């Protein structure tokens, strides 16, 4: 009976991995203030109020109705972003560090500690080429064919888990994937490794990593985060969907989370709607958000 009552009170969309840290912090602060006020009159009742408030926050994710709207309205964006520790947020930050290779240069650290120009590197290894108007870059045709062939093989096999195991140097039985809406997260035991916009984006990264490993002698020497930035840049250049052959369009749109709204640049298939790339973008300043 008690467990049934708890389930009726519990709000799954606001607790567990869906718990919003800013909303929780606001409600705990409110509970603390209420406890102090009541505790001045009656310390025992104050303790009851505090315990009940914490229980409600634990079960429901919030104490005051409308908390997400209040948090969004009164918390500055920089503070919400600091609080936002979800896997999706980590993925956005990783993607935001990857400048779209189709429109600008990205610099990161190479194997010897020197600065590496991401776009120039991908052009040098034959993964990208300058477009006909020389103002942009695109996938090099032979690389695209080899890459898409590997993607097909991974989609018919383990989805890329084996390649991820080789990348991080562990056995496949220590790795797992979990779905979060359309996105997918990779885990090493209970530790979060990364999150991709879709299982197809994950397979694309694993296939590109295998192809680049065959083409580039030093590929395995790059740090994992550097390889991730290079692979994200490649995905941003996909113009033909590896799944259905449809056109992949690059555009901006608004995304709503529990207590935030933000603009993203996304590469999405216009036919099957698979998303291959997404990064938070400041439409006012015209720059990716770190």
UniProtKB/TrEMBL annotation:
Pfam families: DUF8054_C, DUF8054_M, DUF8054_N
Highest taxon in the source lineage: Archaea
Keywords of this entry: Membrane, Transmembrane, Transmembrane helix
Residues in DUF8054 domain copies: 6-85, 117-235, 239-279
The keyword Membrane is annotated on this UniProt entry: yes
Ranges where the record places region Disordered: 91-111
InterPro entries from the UniProt entry: DUF8054_C, DUF8054_M, DUF8054_N
Regions crossing the membrane: 20-39
UniProt KW Membrane keyword: yes
Name recorded for this polypeptide: Uncharacterized protein
Organism placement in taxonomy: Archaea, Methanobacteriati, Methanobacteriota, Stenosarchaea group, Halobacteria
